[in-house]
């Protein structure tokens, strides 16, 4: 029986094999959230639900729909959301210390557009327009994120985009050289996400050392930067720039994911922490941040 990590990874691989890069979707609507609790889904769930193609961001479980007097239409397929449960405290045989394990679990949810309430859809019953998207904010929203980043690294002019850990600097081409403003900000968000690896910010020690192209650490960090940029673009309400969609590029991601079924979940978690830091959101305790309500 496949593990939760393997199920998540296979879902991402299927998207990549179909020529779709989930963390580069142009999200201009609200982030996916649970209809009943109102809580936004985080980490890998942002991408798992974001690529589903439904017009509304609200999701709920089968039982939550039933409590609202609604039913899931016959033949509708659920989507998976993952969360961490804190296990019972136990003695670690190696360290001799008591600890609580974090166990990855999943549940199934349905989009509000998949549910009916009597003769009406649930969206109509609640007065929601199933096709209306939230308006796209101006690019000022991107500037606000950049300017509001705590302890922001120095950004200097360059002929290419990069983050240099040794000097804690970001290099960016002039905005006028980009095909679109959205492309510029998506690239800047990518590099700023890299910069959160610095010990004065979130800290990812392995990134501060030189990494060979294609190595496991390199692949994981690039996934974190790609996902972090997509999250920040989603918050700002702009479409992330389209990356190269060549077969070779996609094969490289698929190869990395097949080699490590936990890679995409870990990368999404790292991206969430990076995006939160850039937005000035204070990290919660480990037990709070790792437990997600379905």
Low-confidence stretches: 285-294
Integer tally of domains = 2
Helix content: 25-40%
How many helices does DSSP assign?
A: 10
Arithmetic mean of pLDDT:
82
In angstroms, what is the radius of gyration?
Answer: 20 Å
Describe what this molecule looks like in 3D.
The chain is of the alpha+beta class. It has two domains: 29-133, no CATH class; 136-294, no CATH class. The chain is 37% helix and 15% strand. The chain contains ten helices and twelve strands.
Please give the structural blueprint.
Blueprint: H1 4-17, E1 33-34, H2 44-50, E2 58-60, H3 62-67, E3 71-72, E4 79-86, E5 90-91, E6 98-99, E7 102-111, E8 115-117, E9 120-121, H4 122-125, H5 140-148, E10 154-157, E11 162-164, E12 169-172, H6 181-195, H7 216-236, H8 247-259, H9 263-278, H10 286-289
Parallel strand pairs: 1-2, 10-12
Antiparallel strand pairs: 2-7, 3-8, 4-7, 5-6, 8-9, 11-12
């Amino acid at each position: 029986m496949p593990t939760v990590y393997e199920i998540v990874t296979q879902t991402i691989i299927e998207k990549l094999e179909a020529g779709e890069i989930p963390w580069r979707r142009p999200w201009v609507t609200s982030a996916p959230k649970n209809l009943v609790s109102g809580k936004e889904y985080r980490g890998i769930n942002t991408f798992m639900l974001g690529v589903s193609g439904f017009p509304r961001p609200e999701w709920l479980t089968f039982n939550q729909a039933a409590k609202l007097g609604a039913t899931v239409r016959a033949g509708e397929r659920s989507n998976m959301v993952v969360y961490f449960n804190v296990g019972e405290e136990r003695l670690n045989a190696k360290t001799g210390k008591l600890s609580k394990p974090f166990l990855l679990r999943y549940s199934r949810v349905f989009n509000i557009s998949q549910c009916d309430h009597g003769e009406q859809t649930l969206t109509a019953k609640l007065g929601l327009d199933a096709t209306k998207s939230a308006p796209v904010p101006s690019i000022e929203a991107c500037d606000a994120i950049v300017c509001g980043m705590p302890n922001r690294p120095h950004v200097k002019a360059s002929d290419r985009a990069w983050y240099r850990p040794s000097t804690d600097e970001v290099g960016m081409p002039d905005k006028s050289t980009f095909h679109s403003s959205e492309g510029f900000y998506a690239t800047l968000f990518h590099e700023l996400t890299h910069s959160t690896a610095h010990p004065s910010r979130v800290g990812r020690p392995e990134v501060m050392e030189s990494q060979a192209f294609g190595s496991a650490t390199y692949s994981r960090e690039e996934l974190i930067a790609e996902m972090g940029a997509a999250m920040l673009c989603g918050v700002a309400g702009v479409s992330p720039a389209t990356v190269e969609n060549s077969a070779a590029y996609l094969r490289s991601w698929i190869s990395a994911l097949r080699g490590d079924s936990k890679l995409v979940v870990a990368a999404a978690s790292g991206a969430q922490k990076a995006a939160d830091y850039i937005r000035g959101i204070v990290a919660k305790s480990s037990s709070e941040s790792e437990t997600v309500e379905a």
